[in-house]
């Protein structure tokens, strides 16, 4: 697991950063900007800019290659790492909160948060009165997402003893996370609509993941009892 985590982490970061650079290419590739400075900005991960969905393709390929190299069943492996992935996502959203990115829209609820000067949300929603430089109170969408990921992680752990076939835990996560992400995106205001639709790029990708989840459920349940390449829970790898 530690060996797998190392490879998935590295390639996940690469994919997450690449997706961010492509999505916000106008921030990096500016006319007249030196090529070397552009490259420095692209690899400057510490400056902020990772998209969770971007990590999925590269991390998935890394996990598949790892499982193939070590002759492990990829579905069983996916069940094992699913809760940990969600815990990592929850911690990452706490980082988003501290960084002031992935923010929600203005609100007047008791738990609304005002971000300090210099954050992206403070620039977009500055206070017209009160503390100069700070943002107006907004939804702490990052904390909503952290709580959501934590609850999904707990559900994945709780569901594990009841799963009958390999891949069911991961399939459950792959089904529920896109649904909650689409709902959370309705609160977030940091991403504009994409591809001429009223949906953000994350919502569109959530629909793709839901389709993938449906295909995975079909694959898992296509043969009763776990035959046909889908081993039952408790079977050998």
Topology overview:
Layout: H1 2-23, H2 25-28, H3 35-43, H4 52-69, H5 74-99, H6 120-124, H7 141-159, H8 168-185, H9 201-221
Helix pairs in contact: 1-4, 5-7, 5-8, 7-8, 8-9
- Termini separation comes to 14 Å
User: Could you list the spans in which at least 5 consecutive residues all have pLDDT below 50?
Assistant: none
Report on the biggest sheet: none
What is the overall number of helices?
A: 9
Q: Could you estimate the helical fraction of the residues in percent?
A: 55-70%
Give the amount of beta strand, in percent: under 5%
**Helix/strand/pairing class, anyone?**
mainly alpha
Radius of gyration: 20 Å
- Give the rounded overall mean pLDDT: 88
Helix and strand element order = HHHHHHHHH
Could you say which overall geometry the principal axes of the C-alpha atoms support? Answer: globular
Number of beta strands: 0
Overview of this protein structure:
The chain has 237 residues and is mostly helical. It has helices at residues 2-23, 25-28, 35-43, 52-69, 74-99, 120-124, 141-159, 168-185, 201-221. α5 (74-99) packs antiparallel against α7 (141-159) and α5 (74-99) packs parallel to α8. The longest helix is centred in the middle third of the chain and has 26 residues, at 74-99. It starts with a helix and ends in a 16-residue tail after the last helix. The mean pLDDT is 88.
